[in-house]
Amino acid sequence: MTRPEEESGRGRLPRTRQGSPPSLLLTLLGDYWWGQTEPLPSAALVDLLADFGVSAVAARAALSRMVGHGLLASSRSGRNTFYRLTPRGQDVMRRGAVRITEFGRPREDGWDGRWSLVAFSVPEAKRSLREALRTRLRWLGFAPLFDALWISPHARHDLALAELADLGVTTATAFVAEWADLPTASLPPQSAWDLEGLAELYRRFVATWEPTRAALGKGAIAPVDALVKRTEIMDAWRAFPGLDPDLPARLLPEDWPRAQARELFLQTYEQLGAPASVRVRQVIAAYAPELADKVVQFSVTSDPPGPRPAPVPAGA
Q: How many Cβ atoms from other residues are within 10 Å of residue 117's Cβ?
């Protein structure tokens, strides 16, 4: 459910690629184990990842990685290992859910024309730090107008400075300004983003997932297939908040495709929820029947977004 911060130092979250075992694991826990503190059998988590073609070795490595970064805590009972979300892991889930569900929500364009700017200095030799900082700023909706001058149309400079401080960057400043259109050397702030390339990504998202929505309208889907597709569409959609700065409407092309893509995501994700949660219940019940009733399905269309009870399959 969340896009982890990209820093591998002590206390930070691991880097995750879209579709990687850690990314899938985070999505599964956010979608079906929201708010739960009870530990899950490692065998159940390994089996769930197997539905995505992840080997047992890779699944266990992903679990260990999550433990190492403070998202999961492990425990043993006899020969069995269990994993639960830590308080920090729960907090990461909550913050990520807010970012994902609020992203792209229609709103009135009350923008005042002011831009948040953040400037910083990080030695070129500290490449991992520079990469971590860039990733976090992009997640907040910033982009580099110049190499070390990042901008956003939203009042998020305080959040950006907090991220810099968290990474130990002390040579930084932030301010708010309006753009002056110079007649001879004008560089519009929105040129910091590749809007044409981003629009193409939205169109590809629609082309990829429209067949799934159409198929759902024609009939039922197997629980395993629903789980895989629901996780994949969440994993694909949650990449956009780190790519799209959510510019004010007046700065966007008239045919901006985000609204179409967001509607497709919301509808498809919700329709896949019930059968997908059935699959999660099946897997968990095979190892810990007493935990099956705790499975939920996260809803992005409820008000407010959050978990709701998963349907009980026939014969359960």
A: 19
pLDDT by residue for the chain (316 residues), tens only, comes to 654 443 333 333 444 455 789 889 988 999 999 988 899 999 999 999 999 999 999 999 999 999 999 999 999 988 899 999 999 888 888 888 888 888 888 877 788 899 999 998 888 888 888 888 888 898 888 999 887 899 999 988 888 888 888 889 888 889 998 888 777 767 788 889 999 999 999 999 999 999 999 999 888 799 999 999 999 999 899 889 888 988 988 889 989 999 999 999 999 999 999 999 999 999 999 999 999 999 999 999 988 888 988 877 665 5
* Cβ atoms 239, 18 nearer than 8 A: yes
For residues 274 and 285, the answer to whether their CB atoms sit within 8 Å is: no
Nearest alpha carbon to residue 72 among 85, 62, 82, 60: 85
In sequence order, the β-bridge partners of residue 142 are none
